[in-house]
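Case study 2.
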Amino acid sequence: QVQLVESGGGLVQPGGSLRLSCAASGSIVRINAMGWFRQASENQRELVAGITGGGSTNYADSVKGRFTISRDNAKNTVYLQMNNLKPEDTAVYYCNAVVIIRTSVGYSTREYWGQGTQVTVSS
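Prediction:
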């Protein structure tokens, strides 16, 4: 019913920048919180940054001052600008969204994930 499509990952040298995008489509009434998570190798998936429907943001301590999350509500899209990338930022990055959808019996709030995009920081 709702699809999240990510783009913008790739290989970058330490100190470089990347911008991730995640566009939501489908039977969307409203998108509440959106966020980016990452998972490196066998580590647990961790929150990188989140943004509420009203625009409030929060970040993992490891990325504060380097990453910026933003959203375009008209396009149902969330972005992650990543600057001064470090090798430890290497991971698969996943988009997440809490979405209100219309169902046959009314409205429902559900959580969706993107397919993931690889970010590799290496010289």
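The mean pLDDT is 96.
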